[in-house]
Amino acid sequence: MEDEVLARLAFAAMLESGGFRVVPVASAEEALEVLGAGLDVRVMVADVELSGSGMDGFELARKVHAEHRIGIVVVSGRASPDAGELPPGIIFVAKPVHKATLVHLVRDAVGREPEPPSVRPLAEPVTASTLTPRQHEVLGLLVQGKSNQQIGEALGLSTNTVKVHLVTVFKVLGVSSRTEALLAEMKRLPSRQDPPALLLS
């Protein structure tokens, strides 16, 4: 993740050309939301300087390390971590970063087994009841016929993050398209305590 849009796009292009599927985000908060959405993320690449609440890349890396078992690469052209500032296993690299170096580091991060931050219960199977409140909000707006862009504007999310949430929503509902999701959710409404949905034309 990189605060400057052009640099973030450049990093994404480097990684995509290296065979990775990239989900660019613009802030630490958005990164945490994507990681909590159920998408199969293997590595996070974070710049030290981030937009949002003031959380920098070092703090984000520590939080992600504590909550998610994924590889982490932190990059910066202005700061380097003090001894002990980053947990073991997190990769730090100074900018500028050449494409071959970045791709190699990310592949290394994918391959290594992160040290378990703490003992956590096994993940529960994904079911309708395990949708996060945010994913329920996304689904509710989808049922209203909102586009990804409109959903993002309503919830303060980027279109990429909306798509990430929809991947999990579709998986939970057992569907592969917005139309199928709409029909599946409409069928579920009578069994729930929510008010009945109305279709206006």
| Count of runs of 4 or more consecutive helical residues | 8
Question: The CATH topology of the largest domain is what?
Answer: Rossmann fold
Question: Strand-residue fraction?
Answer: 5-15%
Number of strands: 3
Provide the helix percentage.
40-55%
The count of domains is 2
**CATH hierarchy, class of the largest domain:** Alpha Beta
Low-confidence sequence ranges: 113-127, 190-201
Order of helices and strands: HHEHEEHHHHH
Shape: elongated
Q: Give Rg in angstroms.
A: 19 Å
CATH architecture level-2 label of the largest domain? 3-Layer(aba) Sandwich
Average of per-residue pLDDT values:
77
CATH homologous superfamily grouping of the largest domain: Response regulator
Question: Which helices and strands appear, and what pairs or packs with what?
Answer:
Blueprint: H1 5-17, H2 28-35, E1 43-47, H3 57-67, E2 71-76, E3 91-94, H4 99-111, H5 133-143, H6 148-155, H7 159-173, H8 178-188
Helix pairs in contact: 5-7, 6-7
Task: Characterize the structure shown.
The protein is mainly alpha-helical and 201 residues long. It is 45% helix and 7% strand. The protein has eight helices and three strands. The chain has helices spanning 5-17, 28-35, 57-67, 99-111, 133-143, 148-155, 159-173, 178-188; strands at residues 43-47, 71-76, 91-94. Helix 3 (57-67) links the parallel strand 1 (43-47) and strand 2. It is elongated.
